[in-house]
Specification:
Elements (H helix, E strand, L loop, with lengths): L6 H11 L2 H11 L4 E5 L4 E4 H17 L7 E5 L4 H13 L2 E4 L6 H11 L3 E5 L3 H10 L6 E5 L13 E2 H6 L17 E6 L9 E5 H14 L7 E4 L6 H5 L3 H7 L2 E3 L6 H11 L3 E4 L1 H13 L9 E5 L5 H10 L4 E7 L3 E6 L13 E2 L4 E5 L21 E6 L12 H7 E2 L2 E10 L5 E6 L4 E3 L2 E3 L1 H8 L5 E11 L3 E10 L6 H10 L11 E4 L13 H13 L7
């Protein structure tokens, strides 16, 4: 059947223009004099016009150094204006920007350098020693190595390294000459997963993924050109960059405030000084804000909302945050590979707290059967009764490259028919509202019963003397596995016997779920995105059980 319109003309225009950097340039033309980025620590703000000039200097300097389309620009930076430049400038050259975790070890960074083979490597001077060691031991050396001297201390750099400011200072601020054809399917961003073991996996995103990730945040907040956003977490992960970070904020013409390191006091100071309308962070950051607000109340009427992701919001905590901070709390659930895919709006809370909510507007989320071997088909769902457990799978190709960098075997394992198999265990109800029980790998099997840590942790955290907790399984001859609870106490008078009585009296903790062991600790293992690292806790608990450090009430 013949087309009723010129399909090829549409494709030629659309596929070359539907890119994130084109959206940014629209904002540069519309809002040239409007503040785009404010960095309070260095006391500077950049309008959209000024920011674009700095982007162009970096792009032109890289082009002069031989950076070409398809090259990778890898950067390990704290939130800062140079981070913004590293995100945008490579896209103007057809190159790939690849933000990395600045907390990685030298060995992990070296393995990523060897895998991604970046033409340019940018690091913060605060991690200079780690970066220098990584460059010593990696096999593939970047052509250009740049150090961001955020503190202005001008430390001694290894031979061949340049300061970022010196590298771009004399470059022209004109638009870089384009020697490539824009393509909405081309990779433009490469994330690293925040896994707990092994080298982080590379997650490629193409230009249309970047546009539609921006659209997703803009739609769900909603975000407007009149908003001012600030992330309380690093931008190097998906939730940081795409949930109120550089990606949606500078695509829609809003303003971005840089927070280098989290501090509740600093957050409140910035909210008042800069009129921040959206704060974005993990639940642990919200707890710190609420704790400070109780002791030192701040005026927060400018806030239109606080957006959190990384882990579910427990009901009691949600009520507390709505009372102390803002009634407009948002909570998203998702992955590095697919961004967020289910969402709780203020209207859903606190009633739906503890759940992950329903699927985002453009996504679909299902719970399918868990098989002994292989995987269920996307249509092989479990009963939508809020009880029957299965694996959570996600369909969000508009925000996912459906692949991993240099790892086709893993891609074939995790992606199937366009669906991403998360390995998260959950249930769903008749309204298709998802509740995450935990990771398949985190599951504890006690006396033949499955226990998912998140469910038990939520109940224990309700105890007034508990600040935070994590549970894991340890080997037990009689039970198969026994539950060990690691506790950060809010009150030093808390004892294991008191917690034992509390769990025994709880209507939400079955007898087989009750912890057999307790250990009181000053901190718990979280990763950079605020997710609990149960794999690390399990390893630690087995060791500490053998050392006699776990407490029997």
């Amino acid at each position: 059947m013949a087309d009723s319109y010129n399909r090829e003309n549409f494709r030629a225009v659309f596929e070359q223009s539907f890119t994130w950097v084109n959206g940014f340039m629209r904002c540069v033309r519309r809002y040239a004099d409007k503040t785009a980025v404010t960095d309070p620590l260095c006391g500077k703000s950049w309008s959209y016009g000024e920011l674009n000039a700095e982007v162009n200097r970096f792009a032109n300097a890289m082009r002069a150094a031989g950076v070409k389309p398809g090259d990778v620009v890898f950067y390990q930076l704290y939130n800062s204006q140079p981070f913004v430049l590293c995100y945008i400038a490579p896209q103007k050259l057809g190159a790939v920007n690849a933000p990395g975790n600045f907390n990685l070890s030298a060995g992990e960074t070296a393995r990523m350098l060897d895998r991604d083979r970046p033409a340019v490597y940018v690091y913060d001077c605060d991690v200079k020693d780690m970066a220098a060691r990584a460059l010593e031991i990696c096999a593939v050396k970047p052509r250009v190595v740049l150090a961001v001297d955020y503190r202005g201390l001008r430390p001694q750099l290894p031979a061949g390294h340049l300061f970022f400011d010196d590298f771009i200072r004399s470059a022209p601020d004109s638009e870089p000459e384009a020697d490539f054809t824009p393509d909405m399917y081309a990779e433009v961003t490469r994330f690293c997963t925040s896994g707990t073991t092994g080298t982080p996996k590379g997650v490629p995103l193409n230009a249309v993924n970047e546009v539609l990730s921006a659209h997703d945040s803009i739609m769900h907040f909603p975000l407007t050109p009149y908003d001012v956003t600030m992330n309380m977490t690093p931008w190097f992960h998906r939730g940081g960059l795409h949930s109120g970070g550089i990606n949606p904020t500078l695509y829609c013409g809003a303003s971005l405030v840089v927070l280098r390191m989290f501090s509740a006091k600093t957050c409140f100071d910035y909210v008042q000084k800069y009129g921040i309308t959206y704060l974005i962070g993990v639940p642990s950051a919200l707890k710190a804000l609420a704790d400070r607000q109780e002791k030192h109340p701040s005026e927060l009427s400018a806030l239109r909302g606080i957006v959190t992701m990384g882990s579910p919001l427990e009901r009691d905590a949600c009520i507390r945050y709505q009372k102390l901070l803002t009634p407009r709390i948002f909570n998203g659930y998702g992955t590095t590979e697919t961004f967020w895919n289910s969402f709780l709006r203020p209207e859903d809370l606190p009633e739906a707290a503890g759940s992950a909510g329903g699927a985002c507007t453009g996504d679909e989320v299902r719970v399918v059967k868990m098989l002994e071997t292989g995987r269920a088909e996307p249509e092989d769902t479990v009963a939508a009764d809020g009880v029957t457990e299965g694996e959570i799978i996600i369909f969000a190709p508009e925000k996912s490259g459906l692949s991993y960098v240099c790892d086709e075997e893993l891609a074939a394992e995790k992606y199937y028919k366009g669906w991403f198999y998360t390995h998260d265990v959950g249930v769903w109800d008749a309204k298709r509202c998802i509740t995450v029980r935990g990771r398949r790998d985190d599951m504890i099997i006690c006396m033949g019963e499955n226990i998912y840590p998140a469910q038990l942790e939520e109940v224990i955290n309700r105890h007034p003397k508990v600040r935070d907790c994590m549970v894991t399984g340890v080997a037990d001859k009689a039970r198969g596995e026994a539950v060990a609870a690691y506790i950060i106490a809010e009150d030093d008078s808390l004892t294991a016997k008191e917690l034992q009585r509390y769990c025994a009296a709880s209507d939400d903790i079955a007898a087989y779920m009750r912890p057999r062991y307790y250990r009181f600790v000053p901190e718990l293992p979280y990763n950079s995105t605020g997710k609990k690292q149960h794999v690390l806790l399990r390893e630690r608990a087995e060791k500490e059980l053998s050392e006699g450090l776990l407490i029997l009430p």
